[in-house]
């Protein structure tokens, strides 16, 4: 038996509890892992609270991220004692995930913990930092350089936004952070943002085209915010979409794309090929300093997960939440 968060559903109720579990609730994978750390992402909070239909199988252990020690692996890809990292692949949605002391996973979903990162640091980065790195890689592929102009980062106080600012600032870019918590500007400026704007400037319906300002945008918000970001992006600029905190609608026009040649690129972190994951995590290990990671993340226990999930949905959580799962 081991401890974990279990989500259950019947015709009348949907609830998540910290409880004792056995291996019958785990996924049918070839690798058994003792989970050291997991995280609490926005998607995890949606799953735990039931605010969105994230979970597709019940009962299920949430947690889309984990770092753990391999106890057994029948594929031969890993060996007992190896420390491995997982993000996505439907874990925490379709398959039981990281918010329990044990996880059973497919070895094809796992990569070795990158050199230079501890287990806790990797989960402080988690899917949020990994997604942010994928966004940065998309900017680089598009030819956006530090001298190209201002980069807008929306949802800046969240995990993806925080890491996007930290990474881009380290690489020499000029960042403007959009947030609903302007009172927390010091946090964002310490990460590397040169200017803070209130999200209200972007979150309401706007014009099809606005004054050109952004060389590129990293958006984790969606809806009107994404549309307005596109409308004010410079000619041939890039807007990278990776989230839907405001909504999954796109209430805009094609004007930025056909009149200014703006590119809208989607970033999926869940099913990303292993080679991209290894590249992104290797760069994260090289770029991010321990003090930056510590500034973005706070640690909680399994017992605090459900309350913290509700706070996250309510917009009361800044940065990243690391969950210490096993001693």
Explain what you see.
The chain is an alpha/beta fold. It folds into two domains: 2-113 and 290-324, Medium-chain alcohol dehydrogenases, catalytic domain (Quinone Oxidoreductase, Chain A, domain 1), CATH 3.90.180; 127-266, Rossmann fold, CATH 3.40.50. It is built from ten helices and 15 strands. It has helices at 42-49, 119-141, 159-170, 185-191, 200-203, 223-231, 255-259, 274-287, 290-296, 305-313; strands at residues 2-9, 14-21, 31-39, 65-73, 83-87, 102-105, 111-112, 150-153, 174-179, 193-198, 214-219, 233-241, 263-266, 297-301, 320-324. Strands 3, 4, 5, 6, 7, 14 and 15 form a seven-stranded mixed β-sheet that branches. Strands 10-9-8-11-12-13 form a six-stranded parallel β-sheet, with helices on both faces. Strands 1-2 form a two-stranded antiparallel ribbon. Helix 1 packs across helix 10 (305-313), helix 2 (119-141) packs across helix 3 (159-170) and helix 2 crosses helix 8. The longest helix has 23 residues, at 119-141.
Gist of the model:
Helix content is 30%, strand content 28%.
């Amino acid at each position: 038996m081991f401890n974990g968060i279990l989500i259950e559903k019947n015709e009348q109720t949907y609830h998540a509890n910290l409880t004792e579990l056995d291996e019958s609730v785990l996924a049918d994978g070839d690798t058994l892992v003792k989970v050291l750390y997991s995280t609490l992402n926005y998607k995890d909070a949606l799953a735990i609270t039931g605010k969105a239909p994230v979970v597709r199988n019940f009962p299920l252990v949430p947690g889309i991220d984990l770092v753990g020690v391999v106890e057994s692996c029948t594929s031969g890809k890993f060996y007992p004692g190896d420390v491995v990292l997982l993000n996505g692949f439907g874990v925490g949605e379709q398959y039981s995930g990281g918010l329990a002391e044990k996880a059973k996973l497919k070895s094809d979903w796992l990569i070795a913990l990158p050199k230079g990162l501890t287990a806790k640091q990797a989960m402080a980065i988690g899917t949020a930092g990994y997604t942010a790195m994928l966004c940065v890689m998309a900017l680089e592929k598009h030819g956006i350089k530090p001298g190209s102009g201002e980069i807008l980062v929306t949802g800046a106080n969240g995990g993806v936004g925080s890491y996007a600012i930290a990474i881009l600032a380290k690489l020499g870019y000029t960042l403007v952070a959009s947030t609903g918590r302007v009172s927390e500007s010091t946090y964002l400026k310490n990460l590397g943002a040169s200017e803070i704007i209130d999200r209200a400037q972007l979150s309401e319906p706007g014009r099809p085209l606005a004054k050109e300002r952004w060389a590129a945008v990293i958006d984790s918000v969606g809806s009107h915010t994404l549309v307005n970001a596109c409308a004010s992006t410079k000619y041939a600029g890039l807007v990278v979409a990776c989230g839907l905190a405001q909504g999954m609608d796109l209430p805009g026009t094609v004007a930025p794309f056909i009149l200014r040649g703006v590119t809208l690129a989607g970033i999926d972190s869940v099913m990303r090929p292993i080679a991209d994951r290894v590249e992104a995590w290797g760069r994260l290990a090289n770029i991010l300093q321990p003090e930056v990671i510590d500034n973005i993340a706070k640690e909680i226990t399994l017992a605090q997960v459900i309350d913290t999930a509700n706070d996250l949905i309510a917009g009361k959580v800044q940065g990243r939440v690391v969950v210490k799962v096993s001693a």
